[in-house]
Amino acid sequence: ICNKAVDVAEYLIDLDTDVCLVSETWLRKGDTAKVKEIKELGFNVISKSRAGRGGGVAFIFKKGIHIKPQKTKSYKSFEVVEGILESSITGIMRISCIYRPGTGKYGKVTDFCPEFEEYLSSITHLPGRPLIAGDFNIHMEDPENVDTKRFQSIIDSFGFYQHVQEPTHFCEGILDLVLTGDNTCDSIQMCNLQVVKTGTSSDHYLVSFSCQFSHHIIPTQEVNLSTRSISKMDMDLFKEDLLNSKLNCTEYSSNDPNDAVILYNEQLDQLLNKHAPLITYNYNPDQSKWLNAECQDARRKRRKAERVNKREKSTDSRIAWVQASKNAKEVISKTRDKYYNNQLAACTQNKRKTYSIVNNLLDRNISKDCYPTHKPNGTVASEMKDFFHNKVADIYKSIGSYVSEKEFVPVNSEFSGSMWSSFDPISDAELTEIINALNTKHCELDPIPSSIFVECISELKTIVLSIVNTSLEKGIFPDELKNALVKPSIKDSKGYFNDYKNYRPVSNLPYLSKIIEKAVQRQLEQHLSRNNLHADFQSAYRQNHSCETATLAVYNDLLCITDVKSKVVLL
User: Fold this and answer.
1) Which of 27, 266, 276, 479 has a beta carbon 3.0–4.6 Å from 228's, enabling a disulfide?
2) What span, in angstroms and rounded, lies between the C-alpha atoms of 366 and 29?
3) What sign has the CA pseudo-torsion 458, 463, 467, 470?
4) pLDDT exceeding 70 applies to what percent of the chain?
5) Are 78 and 40 a contacting pair, CB within 8 Å?
6) Nearest to 369 by CA among 264, 236, 490
7) From start to end of 50-196, where are the E strands?
8) 75-115 residue pLDDT tens
9) Alpha-carbon distance 362 to 351, whole Å?
10) What CA dihedral angle connects 444, 450, 452 and 453, to 10 degrees?
């Protein structure tokens, strides 16, 4: 795959392949850019790389298919990657991709057979019907060979049947094998097994087959998306309309900040629709943005040349097919390179966008953009909501009943500081300080993007001050601002992303709610600091007291104790 990512993916597209087992991928642990090339062509990849040079095994499968990777023991004489396909009708299929190098320190069949026997023994008691395939580098075309006899004896003893009977290598050897259970309960009904000489430069041929397994494939569906041309807005006209709107022409006599927030949202939503109306378009999430008509035309020519080669089976037709495949690869690669080069050139002054593009190319954005894909989005959202709700309920339940007052230790010292009974209204200058200190992260619940809000703060200051100060005066937090968009964030990019336990809920709050929160926090912090009410070892939600300073304090204590030749234990 390392040097033939586009070739392999395009060939799988032509064959309409659901799952492909690849041995000797030559992918290293950090070769995420090559994996990303395959993903952009409509596939997912589960790869297990070798620690050193060469080797490697992988699954390449359509994005609508759900394969759950399994942990396997590491063996010295061969490499294996394992995954399971689940079906409510046909149960579980356990797929294993094997690569045994024919040379090297552990390249002897005498080293391989005991370890492979151990592997077969480990999976026979696991649920699921086994399907094992890959490059075994054992010459099954020679049944009298000692190594072949020994290997055949092992698979026979475990009740496996070897299906490939044609040469799979250009040297006429049967090296690539497909093994399935030979008994009724473990058997997989296979058909149309054939060995195909591919148009790629690989010295191994493709072993293709079909098997009856009712697995749910989520079809690719176009998504209706909406966007706005914010960058093309005439900001001078927008600001003028803000000044002439009800946000600046109405005296706010209501004592309820909810009314002001409703007016704020309605007016800004109307003005944004006027200056940057919604544009709706269809988007296929599995189709790469850079695939254009030229790429599709190159694909058609390649498929036509392949059909001619299958019909004529001549040397000239095969040469034409190979050349058409090379041309298609070149067109697709150049189109992709040109697209991303233009993307990077357009954001030379925007470091955040540049890093976003680079991370996308290196497939490093899984923690942000990777969500469960084994079920429809609506079902996943509903199940995740229930999962997190039940998780919080279980935490409350484990805490038990509330602690009674008699269990609190009474404080003998009396408070001698100044009492604080109400919030003070904030000024224009304080509002500006709060906004300048806030991150301009946008929330979809905001009527306008936070960047536009900051740019138009002079025109919005009247309504914003009214909302904030009325909220502080009355002790009422507006109902409209209590809503949040909760998005799942995967805890570890290496984790299994179809398991809800690997996610944490992240709440995206409206920008205006953060302003009120910051106004309250500033006054609370001032009171706590002025009256020395902070806990001595508090290391969060306090200026100049973070996790870094807490770690530094512990480290300093350790150094001071060791300097006086004393003993210390860190628990």
Assistant:
1) 276
2) 16
3) positive
4) 91
5) no
6) 490
7) 57-62, 68-70, 79-87, 91-99, 129-135, 160-162, 176-181, 190-196
8) 999 999 999 988 777 788 999 999 999 887 777 888 999 99
9) 16
10) 120
Reply yes or no on whether the pLDDT at 214 is more than 80: no
Q: Which two tokens stand for residue 133?
A: 């395939």
Determine the Cα–Cα distance for residues 84 and 218; give it in Å rounded to an integer: 17
In the structure encoding, which two tokens stand for residue 68, read together?
């759950």
Check if the beta carbon of residue 468 is closer than 8 Å to that of residue 426: yes
Give the DSSP letter of residue 545.
B
pLDDT greater at residue 418 or residue 250? 418
- Amino acid present at 274: K
The lowest-confidence range among 100-109, 278-287, 516-525 is 278-287
Dist CA 370 CA 98 (whole Å): 28
CA dist 480 and 265 (Å) reads: 9
Q: Which of 20, 35, 46, 34 is nearest to 134 (CA)?
A: 20
Task: Please give the Cα distance from 270 to 238 (Å, whole number).
Answer: 11
Cβ atoms 4, 202 nearer than 8 A: yes
Q: Look up residue 260 and give its two tokens.
A: 């002001």
| Per-residue pLDDT reduced to its tens digit, 8-22 | 888 899 888 999 999
Q: Measure CA 236 to chain center.
A: 40
Cα–Cα distances in Å, from 491 out to 109, 362, 499, 501, 502? 42, 19, 11, 9, 6
pLDDT at 406: 47
- Measuring CA to CA, how many Å separate 123 from each of 157, 189, 375? 14, 20, 28
> Can you list the positions of beta strands (E) in 4-78?
19-23, 43-48, 57-62, 68-70
For residue 134, what is the DSSP state?
E
3-state secondary structure of 215: coil
Residue whose tokens read 């992918």 = 27
Burial classification of residue 11, based on how many CB atoms lie within 10 Å of its CB (0-12 exposed, 13-18 middle, 19 or more buried): buried
Which residues does 134 contact at the CB level (< 8 Å), separation at least 6? 21, 23, 57, 96, 97, 98, 99, 100, 176, 177
- The DSSP call for residue 479 is G
Instruction: Walk across the sheet containing 19-23 and list its strands.
Output: 19-23, 57-62, 43-48
Strands 129-135 and 91-99: parallel
Alpha helices in 276-314 (DSSP H): 293-312
Can you give the pTM of this predicted structure? 0.68
